[in-house]
Amino acid sequence: MQVYWRWLVTKIPLWVAPNLLTGVGFLVNFATVLPLLLLDTNLEGVAPSWLYVAAGAGFFIYQSLDAIDGKQARRTGSANQLGELFDHGCDAVSMFLILMSGASAVGIHDYPISLLVFVVLLNQVNFVYHWQTFVSGTLHFNLFDVTEGQFTSIGLLLVRGIFGLQLWDIELPVVNIRLKMVLIAVILSFSFLNLLQPFSVILTRGVGKNGTTVANTSVLSPLVTMMILVPVPFLYYSSSPSPLRSHSLLFMSATTLPAVKATITMILSSMTKTPYPLLYPLYLAPWFTLLNVLIGSPLPEIPLLFVVTVSCSRQ
Questions:
Q1: Model confidence over 59-71: pLDDT tens digits?
Q2: Which of 274, 295, 283, 249 has its CA nearest to residue 100?
Q3: What are 251-294's pLDDT values in tens digits?
Q4: How much is the CA Rg of the chain, to the nearest whole Å?
Q5: Which of 33, 282, 155 is nearest to 167 (CA)?
Q6: Residue 230 backbone phi and psi in degrees, to 5
Q7: Over the stretch 70-94, which tens digit does the pLDDT of each residue have?
Q8: What does the alpha-carbon distance between residue 49 and residue 82 come to, in Å, rounded to a whole number?
């Protein structure tokens, strides 16, 4: 893709700010994904086919502009940490949008546990990716990394839009397994490997005093945040499965959006070389929804999930 990106950046006027490229790409991504999610709030893959094609095209535009903003910054001599923070912040939010639209494209609603693992796992992959930067002070790339994951998402959206949801229900000969199940298994397997790989950096390449992080803190301290964020969706579903089945997008938003905040905070700590805050009040919001269920739901579940989603989105 470097050939394409190098060509593309030459078509951008020098007066265009790098952050403008990122911002425009993000707005295009948001504008094409939002209608899809509003028409498929249960992530069943029932939105009009053209919306999946539009979302795939919008994500490709975002990916292209996001990939060349750094090149544009070097062309114009305007590279700075604020621009990098804006870039990575947009990436963190876009990651959530792509997870939701990807889940819709595959119609993963049929498999609630797979949906939970898919969203939670990939959110944590993004978190751990920046965690290793916080430890080592440099970005690290794997054979199958962000760019490959992005194009996988684009492919899923385009295939769903062109061939329809029924494609995933084709039963593979010999093994008699639906294509959807194979696809989910492959995605989750690669995601799990991508979650584990950064720990070789986290455990061995700390650049701070005595092998600590860039902020001279314990390389394992962010595990506290993971332990706060990861269990809630699973505990909630085991206690009350109906919200995930009837309001999938709302449920996943309320219980996993704090992970986006955690990732952005990790990016900020990496860039400023300051200690990573292990806990924000926002991280406890999903636990409040779980507590409500455990004590018999004195507050209606769906309205409460909506309030938590709005609160998380604002922050």
A1: 999 999 988 888 8
A2: 249
A3: 999 999 999 999 999 998 998 899 999 888 889 999 999 999 99
A4: 20
A5: 155
A6: -70, -45
A7: 888 888 877 777 777 788 888 888 8
A8: 38
pTM of the model: 0.90
Q: Could you state, in order of their start, the residue ranges of all structural domains in the chain?
A: 1-110+144-159
Instruction: Give the list of residues 6+ apart from residue 232 with CB closer than 8 angstroms, or none.
Output: 255, 286, 287, 289, 290
**65 contacts: CB under 8 Å, gap ≥ 6:** 21, 22, 24, 25
Q: Which pair of tokens denotes residue 57?
A: 């095209």
Of the two residues 76 and 156, the one the predictor is more confident about is 156
Joined together, the tokens standing for residue 88 give 């990575």
Q: Which residues contact 303 (CB under 8 A, 6 or more apart)?
A: none
- 88 part of the active site: yes
Segment 202-235, tens digit of pLDDT: 988 888 888 899 999 999 999 999 999 999 999 9
Residues with Cβ within 8 Å of 10's Cβ and at least 6 positions away in sequence, in order, are none
Q: Which two tokens stand for residue 264?
A: 């952005």
Helix%, strand%, coil% for the chain, nearest 5: 75, 0, 25
Q: Which of 88, 109, 130, 247 is catalytic?
A: 88
Beta strands in the chain (DSSP E): 171-172, 177-178
